[in-house]
Amino acid sequence: MRITGSDPTVGASGGWLQGGGHSMLSNTLGLGVDRVLQFKVVTPEGLYLTANACKNKDLFFALRGGGGGTFGVVMESTTLASPAIKIQSFLFLVPNANQTELEDVFGIIVDNAEGWAEKGWGGSIRGATLVYINPVLDNASAKESIAPLIEYAAKVEGAVAVLTEYPTWGAFFDYFSTTFPTGVGANLAIASRLIPKENFATSESRATLVNAFVEAYNSVPSMLLLANAPASFPGDGLTSITPAWRNSIFHMTVSATWAYNATSEQAKSTYSKSSAAADILRKITPDGAYQNEADVYEPNHEVSFWGNNYDKLLSIKNKYDPNHLLDCWHCIGWNQSSLRFRCYL
Predict the structure, then answer these.
(1) Per-residue pLDDT reduced to its tens digit, 150-199
(2) CA 142 to CA 139: how far, in whole Å?
(3) CB-CB contact of 214 with 78 (8 Å)
(4) Which tens digits make up the pLDDT trace of 41-70?
(5) What is the CATH number of domain 14-82+309-334+337-341?
(6) What residues contact 207, with CB distance under 8 A and at least 6 apart?
(7) Where are the domains of the chain?
């Protein structure tokens, strides 16, 4: 078994891994960067290097969260595999939820989020639809811990609450990826935010968070809450992702699309709409966002994506790519005035 994204189109290496690599199992087994053992990479100066915990350790650190397409061309990566484990899967759904039901569901989720993370739950939430998995609990313990949603479903006509045991992660993944496929080919303006444990600390902060989630959900076509932060996996302290990942319960994304024949102004307006939705959560959370699913207008992106790792990453960038041959929007050491970005909105 290995950690993967939530869709078959997401590769196990490349940008998913080098940017962090979240998974529905990340709460208990870590992010992709927590499980990578080695990279083989061609640097911009033409060197073919092996980077691991013993050789080229600085490059290994940079590739474990510094972002894809930044430090070199990764030719090969080696990641840790784990024995097959049983997965408890919980599906919850309130069809066509009204505003009151939506607020109720978000309230239950926020009130229980930290406790569920401690018990091994991870997954995704879209409005009043929730898919959670647990690789730690048995079926009876899973049912007991997720009881608040089961009890709520019993009170709402048409609501669904189903707990299923899968023999392996692969068996669950096949079900999830075919039942909830990710669309492709759409023009997508996305923004993200990491939601730290501090926002769950008191009844007042939880109420504020619920209101923010409801407001963000109602302001864009799509809002997704991902319980995929490594809340129960401390890591080895040698990854270059923002430390905010380790202190978070949720990773939230908001998104909106524009038509294939839209004008540049219409596209820009769509990006602004997603950014405004993210602002609702920015107002009540410290800087922290996932670079792979980030707002193109992300304020203070150096801190949001890498926290206090940015200066070290910039030094490594200058060592292995002194001429900054590799550059991309909001990447380590990016040159905003470069002509390659003249088409950006």
Answers:
(1) 999 999 999 999 999 999 999 998 888 887 777 777 899 999 999 999 99
(2) 5
(3) no
(4) 999 999 999 999 999 999 999 999 999 999
(5) 3.30.465.10
(6) none
(7) 14-82+309-334+337-341
